[in-house]
Amino acid sequence: DAMVIQNPRYQVTQFGKPVTLSCSQTLNHNVMYWYQQKSSQAPKLLFHYYDKDFNNEADTPDNFQSRRPNTSFCFLDIRSPGLGDAAMYLCATSRGAGREAQYFGPGTRLTVL
Amino acid sequence: GQNIDQPTEMTATEGAIVQINCTYQTSGFNGLFWYQQHAGEAPTFLSYNVLDGLEEKGRFSSFLSRSKGYSYLLLKELQMKDSASYLCAVRDEIAAGNKLTFGGGTRVLVKP
């Protein structure tokens, strides 16, 4: 039944060691999003894909990259994690640009040692 | 730019009603969403308003006034499981995708 799946749920990495977070969806939605949410703060959009078109937020650091090899999968790569990158990373999907709700995955909590 | 304000925290009693207000000042507007988020979990969709007025869905209702840049989420017959953060989010008018800007969330604590 799971519609937006994120793996792993908990990820520990070392300072500066690259890490990849994974998101998959069974909804066949066109749009996939990555958000960063720090403790007690609002989710902050990092980037989104509309089909294969990548849209980066202006204030997303270069340290964060994303790949969407097909409709179902999207990856978040953090090239050199810093202590400030410790957060919950949420993947979300929506069907398109109309009156569509975004559906969130369970999130990956990233710890940077 | 986007500015979305909601109270940080509210406390209410089981069985009571709580109203969570959200005000927004945004460069564009194409709808307002409310999400519920339990601690350590992902946000789940509650409601959507794009036209002025009240949308009712069971125990939850959401209201929008576009001229005032104001929305509220009304939770009736509160249950202990309603203790969570409630996020107000405004959608930008953009050509592609569905960009949401979230408020900081209102943490609701339901007491017996």
Index terms:
heterodimer, A: 113 residues, 7-stranded mixed sheet, 4-stranded antiparallel sheet, 11 strands, B: mainly beta, globular
What does this structure look like?
The complex is a heterodimer of chains A (113) and B (112). Chain A has 113 residues and is an all-beta fold. Chain A has strands at 4-7, 10-13, 19-25, 31-37, 44-50, 53-56, 64-67, 73-78, 87-94, 103-104, 108-112. In chain A, strands 2, 4, 5, 6, 9, 10 and 11 form a seven-stranded mixed beta sheet that branches. A four-stranded antiparallel beta sheet of chain A has the order 1-3-8-7, with no helix packed on it. The relative contact order of chain A is 0.35. The mean pLDDT of chain A is 92. Chain B contains no helices and eleven strands. In chain B, the strands form two sheets. In chain B, strands 2, 4, 5, 9, 10 and 11 form a six-stranded mixed beta sheet that branches. Chain A binds chain B through residues 31, 33, 40-45, 48, 50, 53, 55, 88, 90, 94, 96-107, 109, and chain B through 31, 33, 35, 40-45, 48, 50, 87, 94-105.
Brief sketch in words of this structure:
The complex is a heterodimer of chains A (113) and B (112). Chain A is an all-beta fold and 113 residues long.
Strand content of chain B: over 45%
What series of H and E elements makes up the topology of chain B? EEEEEEEEEEE
The pLDDT mean of chain A sits at 92
Helix content of chain B: under 10%
Number of strands of chain B: 11
The helix count of chain B comes to 0
Instruction: Kindly estimate the percentage of residues of chain A that lie in beta strands according to DSSP.
Output: over 45%
**Major sheet characteristics of chain B:** 6 strands, mixed
The chain-level structural class of chain B is mainly beta
Distance between the termini of chain B: 41 Å
Instruction: Please give the oligomerization state of what you see.
Output: heterodimer
The parts of chain B where pLDDT drops under 50 for at least 5 residues are none
Low-confidence spans of chain A: none
Largest sheet of chain A: 7 strands, mixed
* Helix/strand order of chain A, N-terminal first: EEEEEEEEEEE
Rg of chain B (CA only): 14 Å
* Tally of helical segments of chain A: 0
Tell me the overall shape of chain A. globular
Mean pLDDT of chain B: 91
